[in-house]
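wait is this the right file?? whatever heres the structure
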């Protein structure tokens, strides 16, 4: 381990004090990347995982249509939950807007169609 010692003279209130400063073998950039890496590893450890039964049967296209049609109600429930959470009340906390796990683009396409479906009923002349 290579340690470079430099003596710095610092004048404090008229009294000369000698400080010895050690140079670290790690640069500040290496230390910064180390802490970023530790933070990412810690955040990944908090990730929520799905059960085996949920992964075997994810939400698909038709579930996306149904969830899209229910979107106004689930959004309202989430807003109500958000408002009551300021007072420490857990009301409607298990309602989510998007079903997870889902099949990806097929679910989102169904969700989009489900959102547009009720609005198309009002376009009739």
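ok assuming it is, sequence goes like this
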């Amino acid at each position: 381990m290579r340690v470079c010692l430099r003596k710095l003279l610092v004048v404090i209130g008229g009294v000369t004090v000698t400080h010895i400063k050690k140079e670290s073998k790690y640069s500040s950039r290496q230390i910064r990347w180390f802490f970023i890496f530790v933070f990412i590893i810690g955040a990944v450890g908090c990730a929520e995982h799905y059960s085996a039964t949920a992964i075997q049967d994810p939400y698909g296209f038709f579930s996306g249509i149904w969830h899209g049609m229910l979107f106004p109600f689930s959004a309202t429930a989430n807003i109500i939950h958000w408002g009551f959470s300021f007072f420490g009340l857990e009301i409607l906390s298990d309602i989510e807007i998007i079903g997870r796990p889902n099949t990806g683009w097929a679910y989102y396409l169904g969700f989009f169609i489900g959102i547009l479906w009720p609005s198309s009923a009002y376009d009739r002349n």
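Confidence is low (pLDDT under 50) at residues 1-13. so i think its the right one actually
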